[in-house]
Amino acid sequence: MPRNKIVDLHSARSPKYRATLEQIAQDGKCPFCPGNFLYKNSVILRRVGGWVAVRNMHPYANARVHLLIVSTKHLEQFTELSVNDFVSIKKLVSWAMVRFRIRGGAFTMRFGDTRYTGATVCHLHGHLIVPKYTFKTRRAKVVQFPVG
């Protein structure tokens, strides 16, 4: 995958999201890099070290909470992460667990070539996903997180 690729339109989940990605590709600015952050439409909820937590502008179906944990440096590979990065990510997820009263969920991070990952944004970021809970069935609803 070329390093100068910013987004991958192939995995866009909706026409609205695809239009956003097309605009990002046309502008040639990474939506997660400082100065362009999430196309200037997102509020940073918390900052720890070189990472921030924000709400996902396009949350997955059945998610009660869907946050992005995003590096403030443009990274694309898992191998670029440092021990300090992992500490920052842990602190952000731990904060979110208290702030959003999270009893269970998932933290996922795609990395590398988007043809393998299914990611739409190449800039390294993680997803903190908490499913909606149905009290009648006493089970969480399924949230589909695509890889590939």
Walk me through the structure:
It contains three helices and seven strands. It has helices spanning 15-27, 83-99, 114-117, and strands spanning 46-48, 51-55, 63-71, 106-110, 125-131, 133-134, 139-140. It is α+β, with helices and mostly antiparallel strands and 148 residues long. β1 (46-48) and β2 (51-55) form a beta hairpin. The strands form two sheets. It has a five-stranded antiparallel sheet with strand order 1-2-3-5-4, covered by helices on one side. It has a two-stranded antiparallel ribbon with strand order 6-7. The longest helix is centred in the middle third of the chain and has 17 residues, at 83-99. The two termini are 14 Å apart. 23% of the residues lie in helices and 22% in strands. The mean pLDDT is 91.
Radius of gyration: 15 Å
Count the beta strands.
Answer: 7
Oligomer: single chain
Helix content: 10-25%
Number of helices: 3
Q: Report the sheet with the most strands, covering strand number, pairing sense and barrel closure.
A: 5 strands, antiparallel
Structural class: alpha+beta
Q: What is the H-and-E element order?
A: HEEEHEHEEE
Identify the overall geometry: globular
What proportion of the residues form beta strands (DSSP E)? 15-25%
Q: What is the distance, rounded to the nearest whole angstrom, between the alpha carbons of the first and last residues?
A: 14 Å
